[in-house]
Amino acid sequence: MEERYTIGCDFGTLSMRAVLVRLRDGEVVAEETFDYPHGVITGQLPESGVLLSGPGWALQDPDDYLQALEHCVPTVVKESGVDPAAIIAMGVDFTTCTVVPLDEKLVPLCKNPRFRDRPHAWIKLWKNHTAGPEANDITRIVAQKGWHTLDDYGFRASSEWFFSKILEIIRKDEDTYRQTYTYSEAGDYIVSQLVGKMVRSGVLAAAKGLYDNVNNRYPDKEFFRALDPRMENIVEEKHLDNIQQVGSVAGGLTASMAGRLGLKEGTTICVAHADAGCALPGAGLVQPNEMLFVMGTSTCHMMMAETKEQIPGMFGVYYNGILPGYYAYEAGQGAVGDIFDWFCRRFVPQSYYEEADQRGIAIQKLLDEKAAKLKVGESGVIALDWMNGNRCILQNSELTGLFMGLTLSTTAEEVYRALLEATAFGTKVIMDQFAAYHVPVKGVYACGGLAHKSPVVMQIYADVLGLPIKVSAVKQTSALSTSIFAAVAAGSAKGGYDDYATAVSRMVKPPKREYFPIPENVERYQKLFAIYREMHDLLGKEGSPMLRLRELQRECL
Fold first, then answer.
1. How would you list the strands of the sheet with 290-295, edge to edge?
2. Is the C-alpha dihedral spanning 137, 139, 144, 150 positive or negative?
3. For the whole model, what pTM was predicted?
4. Dist CA 491 CA 498 (whole Å)
5. Which of 64, 182, 191, 510 could form a disulfide with 36 if both were Cys (CB 3.0 to 4.6 A apart)?
6. In whole angstroms, what is the distance from residue 464 CA to residue 118 CA?
7. For the segment 19-34, what is each residue's pLDDT rounded down to a tens digit?
8. Buried b or exposed e, range 36-68, using 16+ CB within 10 angstroms
């Protein structure tokens, strides 16, 4: 039988990865990565130089996404030597919630010269947190009205969400809002470029857009009118329709895009998925109550279950959010790898960089080695991991990071280890919340850059949680998963698969490595975590001095 292949495209915060996968055994026969030329736009807009006032901005340039597609897909096809006719389908996953304002031709509004210097016409990345006041207002309005709109989302709105970001736009740049034909998740935008029409993903709409996948509806007009009268008819006016469920076929690849990507016209394109949720099949998880940590710039904690429980502080529980027929549970931390990178760029002494250069290793590798030599609690330093706000369980993007226990003798590796431990403690808070609300976690898995690159990080997590952690077999787990979704969308008639269990059994290898907790460390971390939890509960509450400090900062802008 002639071999068949699919392509999975994983759009992350800083880069896009593509893999070309053989369906018979899941072998990744070619892969390619493309770093976005503009990265994350935080200080000023490209070209115009318009300054972005205040903290929390995280914008992106849509050209980066298309350049990534047009580089990675032809590269994996060429390097593999595979006949494009044998590539039966392609899938896309994307960081969520990343919001794209589009005109009637599905062109990003920021490409229009008239809107080039308007920040609210640009793509707002998932970690754009300027809509914090709007998220707070949504939470307050829902509580005042006695509505249940947020019950499945931890009872609190987030600045990362679809309608928080749009409410901010309508308040701060109404003209941009009115001139926008439609708003789209970035994953749906990419699919629209591939198939020539807007096809929205039920996963993305439910995860951060308050869409009900059981009853196939958004909140009613009364809800949107309460947010702002100008939003009363947003679903109709901004064309937020044509929502398809996970695993559906979005359409066939257009002739134009086929020529640009080196694929066959009509190649099956499946609806977009979220980068974190889609990763579970690629890690081998198709059964409920097994949790996956997707560890990169941030960490998402994803799990499927057969029943729905409403857990305060979670990012959401929504139907058909990972695989069809299950509820997806999502929690997360707003920064993990970003924190480690921030520390290395801002605070590590030059002598450490010189040592790393002499040994030919990365600076984080050197810090890992030095941090690993420290005993649990030896430094006397502990940190709060809120440098990009707290996603779960406090759901407050206004919160900030903190160190306690610093002295004049504190070393860089001691601070670095405190940051590693803080992110592990943040994960333990989330795991404890699941347990408190009777949602059992029967196994823990990890994927992403940190899981594969840093044994020190993974051992700390195993020790803090007191649980073994299995690491996925492939580095590009989300991209592999997306290729699995594409294979099922295409179906056996085209050489793919008709169900996810069969696809995963054929295409996914067993976990690469397993980390087991060290009993001595588990015991000591219980004491250290008690201190972290005390700081967490004290400084994360309403009226926190962290929030007052933020207000003082705003007064200076």
1. 316-319, 327-333, 299-305, 290-295, 443-447, 469-471, 513-515
2. positive
3. 0.92
4. 5
5. 64
6. 45
7. 999 999 999 999 999 9
8. beeebbeeebeeeeeebeebbbbbbbbebbbbb
